[in-house]
């Protein structure tokens, strides 16, 4: 939700910079866009974080026959 809000604010700022012909508003929009991009978290768990006994590397090794 935070990412969507920040991206929409960035788009509005960049659009306003073209409408009002004030380039600093576009710069603020780009800064907001970079903040949104670098503060976004990935909440999807990968297989190694699921507290399973087998990691993805060990599963690949077993399927290839290397134990």
Order of helices and strands: HHH
Radius of gyration over C-alpha positions, nearest whole angstrom: 21 Å
Strand content: under 5%
Average pLDDT, all residues: 81
The total count of strands amounts to: 0
Termini Cα gap: 44 Å
Low-confidence stretches: none
What's the shape?
A: rod-shaped
Notes on the protein architecture:
The chain has a domain at 1-41. The chain is built from three helices and no strands. The protein is mainly alpha-helical.
Name the descriptors:
single chain; 67 residues; mainly alpha; 67% helix
Précis, in short:
With 67 residues, this protein is mainly alpha-helical.
Provide the fold topology.
Blueprint: H1 2-20, H2 23-39, H3 56-64
